[in-house]
Predict the 3D structure of the following.
Amino acid sequence: MIIADYDVAVVGAGPYGLSAAAHLKAAGLGVRVFGEPMEFWANKMPDGMLLRSPREASTVSDPKGTFTLEAYEANSNTKPVAPLPRETFVQYGKWFCQHLGSDLDRSAVVRVGREGSLFRVALENGTSLTTRRVVVAAGIEPFQRRPRVFANFTPQHVSHCYEGRKLPEFRGKRVAVIGAGQSALECAALLHETGSNVEVIALIPSLRWIGKHVWLHRLGPISRMLYSKHDVGPAGISRLVAAPHLVYHLPLSIKDRIRKRAVRPAGAKWLPDRLSAVKISLGRVVQSAKPIGDQALLMLDDGSQRQVDHVLLGTGYDVDIARYRFLAPDLVKQVRQLDGYPDLTYGFRSSVPGLHFIGATAARSFGPLLYFVAGTGFASTRLTAHIRHHWQNVQ
């Protein structure tokens, strides 16, 4: 009989992985979290980025509410500002991580597979360990949506907004930004501010702005009835999104409508002024494209063409857990799925006993709050309650 090295292995050291590890550790479980802390936020998102979420929705959950964003700012003498700079959030996450101590292993996980009733986790350094449970908190990086028209382009010509490119390298160059969501619009603003010749190309007929109707947020008790502090989704829907335990019980078709409406392409209210000098072509789509030397030639649906030095994709993500290369293919096949999302039940349980998914991969089951940092509290408390209950029953 194989003895497990750990009760729980958490794959991923972003906000969800760090939060889950803190809650599980406090519950007395033997936990190991794997990954470089805040790696995606630190190395894949552009310098100068600001968080779309409000400050009160940007704290990573811990059991006692001790390691809040405000606590970090007080501890580090960081001046509180809104919107929150990405750089501050990254440092806050690393500070939060310090309190996990030896429970963090910066090694990358290369394979998770079944071994009898346990899981074997293989690391990039050639070692491996066994664990009773695995919590996948590996984020969205593998899920980048790349329109088919750009499928055969090299990174020289085309890259994703959150792929780690340093935007100042495009200074003085022509850049087409595809998309109309926060990532596309903010990258367009940052590119313009660093001296690029930018054009935003988007299918929607007009841009949308989050928080545009400011007066709806100034109605006191009425506003609190319409919006949660997380500010995910429009009036009314925002309150429902803030209750993932209720969203879970809705029919899938309604959950999907709520999810798509809450996170449809839109930009933060502090972006319009920064985009006032940026060319924006709406109601347009790139029908075909081809490389021409160091440049890319784009043919739009209105017959016009654009010859640019680079195309930056702000085209979002499509969750597909099969793209997690560390999950053994036979294990993925055992997970009941909803178009690439794991079909989860309470405790963030997948159909494979002992295998859990939190963060964006849980959004199809529990709603769009799980796309955001604000969802760490719900995910970590419900996950820990389930695992602790099961753990106590087998002692």
